[in-house]
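Team,

Forwarding the record for the chain on the shared tracking sheet. I've put the sequence and predicted structure together so nobody has to dig through attachments.
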Amino acid sequence: MADEHHEEHDDHGNTVSAWFLTLSWIVAWTVAAVAIIFGGDLVVWTVIALVASVALAAVAGVMKKVGLGRKEPRPIPPTREEWEADRKSATAGGK
């Protein structure tokens, strides 16, 4: 079942720009958290992490614009009625 689901759908964001943004935010907030734990000022390091997050989001946006993001629009999931009709026809065709 899991293989069927994977084959029927496109990926939903597995792109270079998306991974860059995810990993860079993890690093930025981890650095801020460690600095706070080791005695850094909470407000200062929170502001630093927020500014870094905005800057990294801008970089990811540029990466997306130069072609490292999604190449085609995000797929639109079927409505409940469409999904049920497809499921019914697949079940009827399999019998």
